[in-house]
Amino acid sequence: MLETSRPDVDAVMKTARTYARDLAERVVATFLQAFVGALILTSPFDLGMWQAAAMGGVAAALSLIKGMLARARSVSNSASLAKGV
User: What is the pLDDT of residue 84?
Assistant: First the structure.
């Protein structure tokens, strides 16, 4: 009978947790950076605080999509598109 090796469940869960933590950190950081940047632009461009928050949300959503695409492209624990990360 042909035996196949399966990955250890604990290793798979640790990998998923590492990736999820990495992706969440990137999405939150992107939102905060975009929100602060947009808030700085509210006065000169007559934007409201909620418009600035929406701009941050769009940037965070794009960051989330990029991180998910990076994971689909690679088998690493990272949400980065860079090789070897």
Answer: 64
Helix intervals (H) in 1-85:
9-42, 49-73
Query: Regarding predicted confidence, which is higher, 1 or 21?
Result: 21
Token pair 């949400």: residue: 79
With beta carbons less than 8 A apart as the criterion, state whether 52 and 38 touch: yes
Sign of CA dihedral 25, 60, 84, 78: positive
- Counting every residue written for the chain, the total comes to 85
How many other C-beta atoms lie within 10 A of the C-beta of residue 47? 15
